[in-house]
Each structure stands twice: as structure tokens, then as C-alpha cells.
Design a protein that fits this description.
With 271 residues, the chain is of the alpha/beta class. It is built from 12 helices and 15 strands. The protein is elongated and about 60 Å long.
């Protein structure tokens, strides 16, 4: 049985039963528990299930976001690759909006490495970590939106933030998301909706930058359909059937392979 078919049957079993053990799934598929575990690990990265002791369970319908401090260490290689692809869309002298989040921070980190961009762009953000990156490492014109501070996310949200963004003319907005599926980008936080929509309306082009560990997760509030975005940049772990569906429905999908830097190799050797 090919991997795609095994994974389809695992997803089907999880949806039907809610939870299943490695042993039971291995018996159903007539494969080893190690094979089932590897398949389930891939499906968890894609957001289709949650691993538990001895097996896996259905992903909760809605979820809450992790604090920024925890997000920084997750999917580093994927975020670096997404950031390097995103930077290709940035032109010298353009006005760029950076949404709150670690993927947008990764984009800022890539921009400050490029002399033709780091001092010439106009950077706008509601994220304190992004603003700090540009303050310390670039000479660009730099604007923070202000607004109500969301401490755990190190960013600003709310009506004041939205009003500031609405008064700007932005060339390109990079939006992050902790939840997206075949149709929607969503968020669990009501106060973030207005900020993201303001950025979308103020921008000539809008790009979603997010890794596949967030795919299949559902926030309570929908923000925008993927087809309405100018592009979606994510990593290549997205399953082929989902890739085909997104492209077929008009999504401008850009896939990147994770970047393994020297520091990642060092961490792996010391683990």
C-alpha cells in the first residue's frame, strides 16, 4: 500500500473513531507500528491529527494560539525557507506590512541581510519583535502601528491599530496565520480580525506566509479566502492532494523545501 493511501485511511479512521492506537491502526493496514507512527507524525505536522501516548486523536475543532516565546522554536527550517521565498517579492523602496508572528519576523531577519532592501524599504508592523529587528539592523523608515498590547503575542491589536493601518498605502502585506485550511485563513482571536482585514484593504498585494504544521487547524473567526490572496507561501510537506486542490481552485501556491542551516545541524547533533 502506498503512503498516500495509508495516510488517507489513517485520517478516515481518526475522523470516524476520534482516537486510535498505533497497534490497532497497524493491524488494520497490515504494516508495522513504526510505519504507522511515521505516517501519523507526518499527518500531525500537516495538522490532520494530534499524537497522544500510544496513538493519535482527532484535532480539536477550534484551538488557541501558543505564546510567541514557544512559537519561536517551532518549524525553524520551514520558516526560514518561507522567508527567503517571500523576500523575492520585496522591491527596494516599497512599503511593506509585516503581520505579527514568527514567520514575519523570519522575513524581517532575511531582509536586513540584503543591503539593497534593509535601508530602502518602508516597514510597517504591529509586532514588537519585528520592529526591534529593523531598529537594530537597518536604516529603513520604520512605523509601528500602536494599539492595545497583546503581551503573549508581543504585538498590538484592536481598533486603534486597524485605523492606523487603514490610513496607509502599502505595496505588499505579509500576513501570518496559526490556522488555515483548503478554503480559509482564520484566527482564534476576534481582535486580530480587524487588523488583518485593514492590512488586506490597505495593500496592493497580500501574501499569506505560514507553514504546514498550521494547516487543517480552524480558528473561530474566518479572515479571508485563500483564492482572494495574491499568493500563499508554505513548505513542501503539504500533501499532494491538498496541493492539487488549492491550485485547481485558483490559489497561487508557492512551495519551499525546509532550509537546514548550520545551527540546525549543531542543535541536532547535541540533542
Amino acid at each position: 500500500m502506498i503512503p498516500a493511501e495509508r495516510q488517507r485511511r489513517i485520517r478516515q479512521a481518526i475522523e470516524t473513531k476520534g482516537m486510535i492506537s498505533f497497534a490497532e491502526m497497524a493491524e488494520i493496514l497490515d504494516v508495522s507500528q513504526m510505519t504507522v507512527r511515521r505516517d501519523m507524525q507526518l499527518l500531525e505536522r500537516q495538522g490532520h491529527l494530534t499524537l497522544v501516548s500510544g496513538g493519535a486523536e482527532r484535532v480539536g475543532r477550534f484551538f488557541t494560539e501558543l505564546p510567541m516565546s514557544e512559537k519561536r522554536t517551532l518549524q525553524h527550517a520551514e520558516k526560514t525557507a518561507i522567508a527567503r521565498e517571500a523576500v523575492k517579492m520585496v522591491r527596494p523602496g516599497s512599503a511593506i506590512y509585516f503581520d505579527a508572528g514568527t514567520t514575519c519576523l523570519a522575513i524581517a531577519e532575511e531582509i536586513v541581510k540584503r543591503p539593497e532592501l534593509r535601508d530602502s524599504i518602508i516597514a510597517v508592523t504591529n509586532d514588537f519583535t519585528v520592529i526591534n529587528q529593523f531598529m537594530l539592523n537597518s536604516g529603513c523608515r520604520l512605523y509601528h502601528t500602536g494599539g492595545e498590547v497583546l503581551r503573549e503575542n508581543k504585538s498590538c491589536i484592536g481598533e486603534l491599530t486597524s485605523r492606523v493601518i487603514s490610513g496607509l498605502n502599502i505595496d505588499l502585506a505579509f500576513l501570518s496565520s496559526s490556522s488555515w485550511n483548503e478554503t480559509w485563513m482564520s484566527t482564534p482571536n476576534e481582535a486580530k480580525i480587524a487588523v488583518k482585514i485593514a492590512a488586506i484593504k490597505a495593500s496592493e498585494r497580500t501574501v499569506l506566509v505560514t507553514d504546514t504544521s498550521k494547516f487543517g487547524k480552524v480558528g473561530f473567526f474566518n479572515v479571508i479566502k485563500l483564492q482572494e490572496l495574491d499568493a500563499v507561501i508554505t513548505d513542501s510537506a503539504l500533501s499532494p492532494d491538498i496541493q492539487e486542490h488549492l491550485v485547481r481552485t485558483g490559489v497561487n501556491l508557492k512551495l519551499v523545501d525546509p532550509v537546514i542551516d548550520d545551527e540546525d545541524l549543531d542543535e541536532g547533533a547535541s540533542a
